[in-house]
Design brief:
The chain is 42% helix and 18% strand. The protein is an alpha/beta fold. It has a seven-stranded parallel beta sheet with strand order 3-2-1-4-5-6-7, sandwiched between helices. Helix 1 links the parallel strand 1 and strand 2.
Length: 250
């Protein structure tokens, strides 16, 4: 009697096109890598040309575009030039803003809100005519600012607003599905740039205090992102991936 080999499964994004804005590093790059492994065609966008070129070459992307996502004209041009229809758009561009409001000028405050809320709105407007029925628009948010603290006013505002925006867009853009991933600390190059010499201390603290006893990495977020793309019953919801960080003083 011969033993049957392992069952081969069909890649779950085979032939679908995934657009990742912020796809040259960190969570965006890892999501693109996982989507590619599931058979997706990739279109990557990012602000820095050289890292974007390397990511596109590594993953065999259909195309890539280097631009600042907060440049409204460039963002509109990017979506206008996309082939239609596409299947999924994920936005990981942007970085958190911390500090007391009294220490910031109006331009800093406006820019921080624009980088998250306005960008999500602009992407939704452009994606509405490009994403196929049942496809996905997926945003990134966070869990860390759900607990009020000094220096988190802007981060808390964005944290509270994005789930509400996501739910409303899920109704407004239906049957396109709109979802939000809320992450805690994720061990990415962005985290390293924000923490500098404190990075290793932060990692050690999280390993000791998180219920999962390890640090969340980009692959953890990417696995959830691709699942949300694949599962066509999911829309209008916020999915936490923070290793339980919001439940402990981490």
């Amino acid at each position: 009697m011969t033993n049957a080999g392992p069952t081969q499964r069909e890649p779950e994004l085979l032939g679908q096109t995934v657009v990742v804005i912020g796809g040259s590093a960190g969570i965006g790059l890892e999501t693109a890598r996982r989507a590619r492994a599931e058979g997706a065609n990739l279109i990557l966008a990012g602000r820095k040309p050289e890292p974007l070129r390397r990511a596109a070459a590594e993953l065999g992307a259909l195309t890539s575009a280097a631009f600042d996502a907060m440049d409204a004209a460039a963002l509109e041009r990017f979506f206008r030039d996309l082939p239609a229809p596409i299947d999924h758009v994920m936005v990981t561009a942007g970085r958190p803003t911390y500090g007391r409001l009294g220490d910031m000028d109006l331009a800093q405050i406006s820019g921080a809100l624009d980088e998250h809320l306005l960008l999500a709105i602009m992407v939704a407007r452009h994606a509405a005519n490009k994403v196929r029925s049942g496809g996905t628009l997926l945003f990134m948010g966070g869990t860390g600012a759900r607990r009020p603290a000094i220096g988190l006013a802007l981060a808390s505002t964005v944290t509270a607003a994005l789930p509400a925006l996501t739910a409303s867009l899920a109704l407004e853009l239906a049957p396109i599905r709109v979802n939000l991933i809320a992450a805690g600390f994720v061990d990415t190059p962005l985290s390293a740039s924000l923490l500098g010499t404190e990075l290793d201390n932060r990692r050690d603290h999280l390993r000791a205090t998180l219920p999962i006893r390890r640090v969340v990495g980009p692959a953890d977020v990417a696995a959830l992102a691709v699942h949300v793309m694949i599962n066509t019953a999911l829309t209008g919801a916020t999915y936490d991936v923070d290793g339980g960080q919001q439940f402990v003083h981490a």
